[in-house]
Each structure stands twice: as C-alpha cells, then as structure tokens.
Amino acid sequence: MKWNSAFIHTLREAPAEAEITSHQLLIRAGLARKLTAGVYSLLPPGLRVLRNIEKIIREEMNNAGAVEVLLPALQPVELWKRGPRYEAARHVMYNAQSASRRTTEVDTVLGPTHEEVITELVAGWLSSYRQLPFTLYQIQTKFRDEIRPRFGLMRGREFIMKDAYSFDTNSEAATRSYQAMYEAYERIFRRMGIDAIPVEADTGVMGGNFSHEFVVPCVVGESEIAITEDGSYAAAIEKAVSVPHPRQNTAASAMGKFPTPGCVTICDLETHHGIPAKDQIKTLVYIADGKNVIFLLRGDHELNEAKAIACGFRELRPAGPEEIFNIMNCPIGSLGALKPLSQNISLVIADNCLRDQNGMVTGANIEGYHVRNVSVSRDLHVDEFRDLRKALVGEIHPETNQPLQITRAIELGHVFKLGTKYSESLGARFLDSQGRSHAAYMGCYGIGVTRCLQAIIELHHDAEGICWPVSVAPWQVSLLLFDESLREVAENIEEQLEAHGITVLLDDRPERPGVKLKDADLVGMPVRLTVGEKSLKAGGVELKLRRSKNSIIVPIDQILNAISEMLSFSNA
Amino acid sequence: MKWNSAFIHTLREAPAEAEITSHQLLIRAGLARKLTAGVYSLLPPGLRVLRNIEKIIREEMNNAGAVEVLLPALQPVELWKRGPRYEAARHVMYNAQSASRRTTEVDTVLGPTHEEVITELVAGWLSSYRQLPFTLYQIQTKFRDEIRPRFGLMRGREFIMKDAYSFDTNSEAATRSYQAMYEAYERIFRRMGIDAIPVEADTGVMGGNFSHEFVVPCVVGESEIAITEDGSYAAAIEKAVSVPHPRQNTAASAMGKFPTPGCVTICDLETHHGIPAKDQIKTLVYIADGKNVIFLLRGDHELNEAKAIACGFRELRPAGPEEIFNIMNCPIGSLGALKPLSQNISLVIADNCLRDQNGMVTGANIEGYHVRNVSVSRDLHVDEFRDLRKALVGEIHPETNQPLQITRAIELGHVFKLGTKYSESLGARFLDSQGRSHAAYMGCYGIGVTRCLQAIIELHHDAEGICWPVSVAPWQVSLLLFDESLREVAENIEEQLEAHGITVLLDDRPERPGVKLKDADLVGMPVRLTVGEKSLKAGGVELKLRRSKNSIIVPIDQILNAISEMLSFSNA
C-alpha cells in the first residue's frame, strides 16, 4: 500500500493535553484523532492495528470455545432496574434521550457493559442442563460517562471492549470456564506483545465470587497493585493482604482530654504533640446506603473502600464536612467514636488492628480537643471489627513472606466469577437431570480493546516513535523509496512481499529521505527497507529492524527470505 | 462447526409483531433477537451473515480506492450547530446525557450519520490540491430516534451502516468519485444477491447536487418509486418527472360564489356538485421556516413536499386545523387564495399546471361556500409558479414516453453528490496550484448493512424458510447426521470440506430427522447433505440444493468436487 492511500498524517508536535508518551505517539503517528473529550476517531493505520488486535482476540476466544454475538448499545433502563446493580452503575451511564420527544422519564441508556442484556437473552432459551456450558462473547463499542477522560484511549467515554459471558451448571464448572478464559487471556496478551500480570482483584460493583485483573505497571495507571519483588504474589490494592507494622500495646490507664488547637490531621498531632500516627485513631464518617456509618482505623492506615463495601453495603461515600458537622455536632478534625455515641450514627466498624488497643489518641468530639489513653474496648463504641485497611508499601505478604511493592497499573483485562447474582435476578435458570430448577452460574470477562492498542504503544516505543510488535503492526514492512527513478524496483519489492502475505507500506512521497526516515520511525513498522542509489551501489536494499540500531544490505533477490525469517523470529 | 456450538435457537412461531416474512424468518431462524423497540441482538448465525456482507462491502470499497476509518458515535452538538443541517436533522437524534451530571444543556448527541465529523476531521489536515481526491469509509453503528421502529432490522433505532465520504477539487472530479461509488454499489448489491434498482433521488436534508437511491421493490418499503415498465427510467417519487393528465382550459368568465354546505374535500365537491377534481384548486397552508405559506395544486394532484422544500425552505410542515383557522379566519374545507389575500400569508406558490387556467373552483374563504369560474391569473394571489406535484400512476414519463408505475421500495443504499455545503461551513478547504483557496467538493455514500441482511431474506425465501445466496450464507453447507453410529462419516466430511475453505454446519443433535430437515430449510444453507443408513445403502450421501426440489446421491469420495462445483455455480 502506498503512503498516500494509507491516509497517514503524522505530526511533529503532540497536542498539549497529551500527558503520556503513548497518547502523544497515538496522535503524532496519525493513528487516532480526538473528536471531543474522551472520544476519538481511528484513522487508517490505527484501525489496522485495532483489526490485528481484534483478530488475535477472536482467534483465542474461538479456540477457547466461545461463540461470537453482537449486542446492542441501546439498553432499556427497565432491564437494568430488574438486574442487581442499577443504583451502583447508573452514575457511569449515559441516558439516550429522544431529542424531539423529550420526556423527564429516562427509558434507554447506553450500555457500559452487557451482563443484564446477555443474561436476559440467555434466560429466553435456557431450559435444560444439557444446553450448558457455553460462553458467548462480542467485540463492541461501549459508552461510559467518565467525568474526567484522560490519556487518549486509556480512559475514554466511547471505547471498544471484548466482553464474554460464561454460563454453567454449578460452581465447579464455572471455575473451569473461568480458568479457560484466564488462560485465553494469557495467550491473547502474550500474542499482542503485552506482559500482563494477572492480579487478584476485588469484585466490586460486579459482585461475584472472585476475579483477576490483567494489568501492566504504568505510572499513569488508574489502579494500584501490590506485588512482591519476585512477582509470586500480586493483587489489586483493594484486595491485597499484608501483615501490618506492629504496634507496642500498653496497659489501660485513665483517659484524659487535652487541648489541640489547630490540630486537625493525623500529621498535625504527630508534629505538634509528638503522638506517632500508629498511636492515633482515624475516625471516618461515611454515608452507606443512606445511613451514617463510622469506620475506625489506626492513624497510619488507610481505609480500603472495597473492603468497607464488603461489610455489607451496596454503595458508600465519605460524608462532606457540612454533613459531618450535622451528624456529629463537631468539625472534622476532632472526631472520635467515644461513648456515648451520637444517636445519628447507625454503625461503627473498626479495623482489626484496633482490637484491644490501649493508650490510643482520638478526637474528643469537641472542637480543639483530643483524648489520650483511650482503650478501644472500654471507651469507644464499636459494633464490629473487620479488615478495613489498605496494604502499605513494605508490609509483608503473609504467604510469601516478602515485602510488598505498590505500583500504579493499567487494567487491560478483567475476569470475574460472578456466581448467580445476575441469573437469579433475571431468570436465567435451567432444570437439572432430576428436574430441579437452578440459576446458571455465570462468569464475565472483559478486555479493553482500544485501551490495549494504546498500552502496546506505552510498552513499545523509544525516543523516535512506536516500535510495534509484528503481531499487531499496521504494516509489517516500511519500504522507503529515496529516488523516484527507482520506483519500479520499490514497486516490485512491494508486490513480491504482498504476494507472500507480508503487509508493506511504500513511502513513495516526493519528500526528502530524512522526512521519510523520521516518519517510518514514528509510525513504527517492525522492518524498514530503503531503496536508494546508495544502497543499490552497495549491492541491494538496506534492511533495518525498528528496534535495532544496525542495518544490513540485502540483495534484492534475497529480501523475501530475509524478511520472512525476521518476521517469524520477531513473532516468536 | 457443530449445531450446538453455533448457538442456533430456532422457533416454530414468529412473534406476533413480526408483520413481514423477512422479520418473521429473522427471528424464527435464530439470527437476531429483539431487546427493545427497534433494537436487536445479533446471534451467531446472524452475525456470520453480517460479517459476510461486511466483507463484500469492504472488498468493493477498497477496490474502488476508499480507505477505512472508524468514527465515534458520540458527537458534540456544537459541531452539528456549526454544520449546515442541525435544525433539520435533530429530530432523529438521540441526546447522550450524563446520568449523574444532569444538566438541561445537551452537549453530546449520538450520530445518525457522519458528514459533520468527517468534514471537520478532513479540515484538520487538508491543505493542498495534491492531497485530493480521496474517499474515506467506515462500517459503524448508527443511532436514529425512529418514532415508530418496524419490520425488524428494516427500520431500527440502532443499526449498522457503511458510510463513505469523497473529497475532490472540483465538480467534475466529484462526479467521477460519485461514479466510482455508484459502480461499487452495483457490484456490492449484485454480489449479495440483491437486484437493487438505482433510482434518481431527492437530496432532501442532505442537500447537494444530485443523488441516487439503490432500492428493491417491496410492499412494506418506506419509499415510493416511479418506474417505467421496462425499467429504463426509475426515480424516487419525490424526484419523478411526468406529464400531467391534460385539462381542457376554458375562457375566462365571471366568478361566482355558491353554497357548498358540508363539502370540505375535493372528493365531496366532485360527488355532490359534479365538479371534476381536475377543475378544482387545492389550497394547502404550510408553516415553512416559521412563515405561513400557501401551496396551490390542481385538485387531482398531490403536493410533493421535497419539491416544496426545494422552493428555498429549510423545513416545512402542514399547518394544523387550529393554526389554519387563526391564519385564514376560515376552516380547512373552504380555503382559497383569492385576492385580497390575508395579511397573515407570506407567500403563495402555485403548481405549474395551474398557470393561466380559467373556470376553476376554489374555496371562498367563507365556511360553506366555494367560488366557480376562477381565473388563476385574474382572481388568485400567486407569487410564483413551480413544479410542486407528485407523479401519478399512469402518467407518461416525458423522455421514455412510457407510463409510470408506482411501487413501494426499500432503500438499501444512497449516493449523494453533496457539493460544498459541508466543506464551506466546516472549513474543509485547500489551495489550488495557483494558491487560491477552495472548499472541497464532497460526496457521501451510505449502505444500510443490517437492513441489507434482512432485505436478502425478504428477497430469498420460500414457505419453508430462508434460501441464502452462497456469498452471504452463514454456512455454505448444512450437514445432517441422521444416525449417531455414522458420526465418524459425517465428521470426516465436515473436516474435509472445512479443510477446503467450505463452511459447514453439522447438525449432530439427538433429534429426529424431521426436526433437522425443517431446521435446515428454515436456517437456509445453500447446500444440504444428509448422512444416514438409507443414503449410504444408496451409495453415498444425499445432496440437495436449498432452492431445488430434487436431490441426488453422491459417493463420499466425490462430495468435495460436487459441492465445490455447485458453490461456484451458485456464486456465478
């Protein structure tokens, strides 16, 4: 294919808003162009990469026995309301509202995902255990009302996902389906050139039994993961298990109020009163399912909201400063869960680390005062103790006995064992061999397809541009014509390679060699061939791998062999 | 592929709402399933057909030199407002509204089409005539707020379209691009097994110079076309040209009012007063771009709204009875454009057929009265004469001298020569070789991809089910296993055919032969093979074409040859 028919428009400068390299290269190499916040057009070279990614996903999903369908983006709200998570998910959804028949009633949303639709679809024909198991998947456009879309295709409002859904007769069978998808994901990411790490993940809004995220470490990732140095343990931060740094407990002694004017944070008390964070109690007021709930943690710990939700709530959020004042009659810096507790509080949950601790400091519920020598069991109102805290850097993972590192990561895939949450509420049931009715056991499995496209750039680039893995490259070979008089030579090479299934981008523009070399490096095809007087005098065509600094001269009649070999080597 | 892994769920009965055969078969053969009004999930066999259709379109678009991109569904309203047709198009658009950040301001819509987006995209890099011509296309999901979605995939709210956009330096070049797409469309429809008729069409809301629709006659079609018996002339009814039935004009004589109580239609006056429709004047009050406009036609003619708009309006609609009374101070049955005209009327446009006519009858603008012996030039206020009327069945087409038939049709494709309407307003400009700036000449070209899927069913079925053309069939061969003990024979045939690139659906379910035969006919693969004791005793496998009544026995070692031959024959 000729450069001009490929419709590539490279840019010297990236737009100012492109904060990360992959976003900059995405735009500079002419792969995509922003239409509006979080919404991108894919241009021909970008679309070619996307199709290569889709092909890999499709092949591996089909090999794993999954069957492809195509579900709609427009989804009735009524269906979401019958499902188990409308309230938790609605804040990320767009309403599709008729422009002409405007009503206040919303009846249609744009699907951010398809658990409800597929479960209802399957409910329509599932009747017998003989029909199980099966896994359906699609590659389809999703919409998500991201408040702050960023980083190009990494966090968009419109994006392409592969989503799959498995249906099984029981939990063990569902685990097998989960495992098959897990293994397919390992192959998919490997084939794309992505070293994805599977980490234990929280099931969050999706609900369900267990899940893994497939992530790659990246400073701008949205997720945090905890990982041991040797990688033998890795988990999403919400899920990570670790041994807290120990605290030396003391004997109980008499509690005493003391003035702390201007001290409103853990850090203030540490600095101005010399009270170590681990001797303080953090009092967090939340609104959980409409009720006022207090979470208590050691001052050096942070609340893991996923664990907080797992205490049995559907949704929660921190109370605002005004709300807190109304609830506790005290400003945010002096709160404590001291007895007697305000009638406004429905529940107090304390982190396990606080159990039986004495000699702690907490707010006195009076502005500018704290109390010391607090005995948790004697002085605080605690309804239950739970694991509430986030793992911290350097804490030891109990099973591997190794310290945890915490790093940001991009989530590229996610596999969930869902259980029967959706099938129960939407009636996807079957009769077993004894004629008893059961809800199907489900799993769901997502890959951010457009996100992968950009993640590959993030993982494979250098200062000059993108270095595509062969498997997803828009073209495998970049063929530069340096001298118009040699057009026939170049076109013959193009034709010969293409006849052997090798994709070639022939840059035959009337541009200087320097421009073509720069563009070839920027767009990043794995193999570069240059046809010029100089190379011909040297005996052939110059061949250079994008990732290598060195080039060789290859006689024209050996090009096909040389390239075939290099491509198969790069693919391995 | 085995029946069960293909996920086909056939139904004996179609849903009651499926009014046309193709819609019934779409659902009964398990190709698609309705999610909500006008919104369908595509199931595996339906998706396979869709992919085959897409493949044909892609090949022909690429062969015609078009380059594929992928544009977003979410589009900023601001862009539409800068473009030339927001007011005319907004009633078919969905607003995408944030569920959580609800504002009254709409800032994003779901694209029903992409002229604005592509023109702005191109405006971003188009600078020189050297970059022209080019044609970009995509196959992408569109959203349209259909008030009354009907007929399955024929008129949906979410559907897949192929849309293409050409950019040229001038009108002649644009006509060449148009012609290339026109010819690609002819090949596309032919390869799909659709005998599409290109008809001259109105450019409507799209604006532009000229256009053709590719239609197939169908009683439930949304469009009307006028066509001569030999097909040498065909046009959308909005565009059709014909010679009106002549009227014998009379000499002018004195106008006279006469009572017509209860007569409020053309037909009433014909019946009760013996006044032929062609001697009456039809007075239609419209609201056009906010002004009150009267259109006058002969009583036996109908207003062609497309021609009315072409008088220079952006949008128009008939005034309602109350509006008419307020404007004319007279109810709807007695209107006339008699002098002196009500001050409320801004413009009166009369059809060419009324020019210089005498002896006509029109309403007296007094309830229950009409006037006779009206001379159009003497008695009526007419600002201009225009061609306003729809062609009627039996009228003669002036160039071919043949009578017109009028029939309903489904529009499957549409090609427009747009001119510079979009490029002017959105700044897609280039410099010519002399450095002068011009707006690019555009064309746009659509195919309703999901609509084609169902149109093929509408065109290719019999009482038993679908008869797919080979080119789009979900599988080419339906292989029925009648006896479990012969599984190995069947699987060997399946394997051999698939190894030669022939797609096979093996029905190995534990069902009776009758069930499998019925399902094979319903789903409609072009070739059917049955493997059973009976056929083996007869010397091989029974082979039958879906469209034929007869079958033959083919020895197993000759199946591949026989089928390859039949498929290439069917493809021809």
Features of the shown structure:
ten-stranded mixed sheet; BirA Bifunctional Protein, domain 2; 17 helices; YbaK protein; five-stranded mixed sheet; homodimer; globular
Structural summary, described in words:
Two copies of one chain form a homodimer. In chain A, the strands form eight sheets. In chain A, strands 3, 7, 8, 9, 10, 11, 12, 21, 22 and 25 form a ten-stranded mixed sheet that branches. Chain A contains 17 helices and 32 strands. By secondary structure, chain A is α+β, with helices and mostly antiparallel strands. The first copy, chain A, has three domains: 20-195 and 420-457, Bira Bifunctional Protein, Domain 2 (BirA Bifunctional Protein, domain 2, 2-Layer Sandwich); 256-386, Alpha-Beta Complex (YbaK protein); 475-571, Anticodon-binding domain (Rossmann fold). The longest helix of chain A has 22 residues, at 171-192. Chains A and B meet through helix 1, strand 1, strand 2, helix 3 and strand 3 of A and helix 1, strand 1, strand 2, helix 3 and strand 3 of B. Strand 5 (94-98) of chain A pairs antiparallel with strand 5 of chain B, so a sheet runs across the interface.
